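User: Can you fold this complex?
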Amino acid sequence: MAESILRLENVSKTFNRGSVNEKVALCGLSLTVEDGDFVTVIGGNGAGKSTLMNAICGTFPVDEGKIILGGHDVTRLPEYRRAKYLGRVFQDPMMGTSPNMEIQENLALAYRRGKVRSLMPGIRRSEKAFYREQLARLGLGLEDRMTAKVGLLSGGQRQSLTLLMATLKKPDLLLLDEHTAALDPKTAAKVLSFTEEIAAENALTTIMITHNMSDAIRCGNRLIMMSEGRVVYDVRGEEKRSLTVEDLLEKFREAGGEVSDKMLLN
Amino acid sequence: MFFDALPGAISLGLIWGVMAIGVFITYKVLDFADLTVDGSICTGGAVCAVMMAAGINAWVAVLVAVIAGALAGFVTGIFHTLLGIPAILSGILTQLILWSVNLKIMGQANTVVDTRNSYVIVTQLQAGWAILIMFGFLVVIVGGLYWFFGTEAGCGIRATGNNPNMSRAQGINVNLNKIIGLVISNALVALAGALLAQYQGFADINMGRGAIVIGLAAVIIGEAIVTRISRNFAVQLAGVVLGGIIYYIVYQFVIWLEIDTEYLKMLSAIVVAVFLAVPYWKKKYFYRFAGKKKRAEAKPLEGGESNG
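Assistant: Here's the predicted assembly.
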């Protein structure tokens, strides 16, 4: 039996409690993710997908429940101290990299994720060959521009770099929050295939939020659907592979979810 | 004569260059507009002057002044990170605290440093020497900072200022880094204050008024000059010092022209405002231009997508 990497126990989060804007984002959610799982997460706007990600990352404290990452209770740990377990790629390509720093400096920062930052050199000569080799895998020619500032790169290039940074030091859990949604279709497909490649190669446990139903069915070994802060549908293996987009839409309506245009367009 | 005043202007520019490097660290590296400096430069001067008046060695006095400045930065950092007060307001609060503290340190509105009968590190009586000594100080400071911001810890601070979201995701303690940056910055500012007190022979409760504007002016002038040459961090820092020197040469020039010096702070502020506005307007203009172009290019693509 595989070990569980992530265990959420009865996690709740309400924003703006007690005001007219009160929003229950997570409602007693429990979820266990096994070692090596690649879970795709779908759900409408306001279903709580991003809140789930942010709760795991520690962007805000949760109201109730427990979050256990790699066997450690991280419920009360601040965001930066959970980072050693997590690799993250955000929806906004601008969010995952440092624009005024060089490509290699960004990689060096990521390579030291979860490590105490000492007065040793921020980047060693010996690391550079490794970064060059890793960058070459992206097929974007970035390996020849290692000293270029990241701010000069396009959204797709930055997102690919962020993905590489998230996995440079193998994370216990890789979190992808609609990381291809802001990219043009061609770039999105490229970034997604690199995601699958790198996840498979390192046997990374991954949670990927997506709006794209066919991607959600095609990628990974498990699919969960969220609605109103709960997991309403959880499917894996053979059953998942045989799903169709129509099945999912049907499930979605059953759960009382609102099907957004964005989901249908995909 | 204007040229007779030049060595004085250059040595003053070098002293303010140290201060401007402090401003560079908060304003440019940390992206934190820190107004503590108006108070901490005076704290540095006050501590140094009072200790020297009590007969303590000039170097020891400078060292204690630097520690006092570091403490001021620490207080601003705590206001901002632990108490969640916005950056600018945190600085203003510390600045106000320092006003009282500085008066208490000196016991009056100013303190004289006896530059004729005691050892001082720099003095306007020997502006030529002062230039040399300040040059030595700056080589050490620029070298030290260049090394530090290249270390793992220093890179973490740069990332913190550049993209706090990314920094947290990479396990960087953003709050701690902000505090460290503020401490280093205000330590340097207090160092400049201590040297300034020795140089001019007194510390005054008003010596820091508008210091942030002079610091920003030096940073902006320096950036305008060296950005085209190199983006290297040490070169950027050297540019800031150059900015300080240019500022004081212009200052001397204005005095030489016999323009009413009471207008100087106003002029500095206007110059800084203009320099801050230029990149904004440039961006705005280019943005609109690029926006139109992009929209025009995007049209056929949108059509293609709806077919697919």
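Residues 3-208 of chain B form one domain. The first strand of chain B starts at residue 110 and ends at 112.
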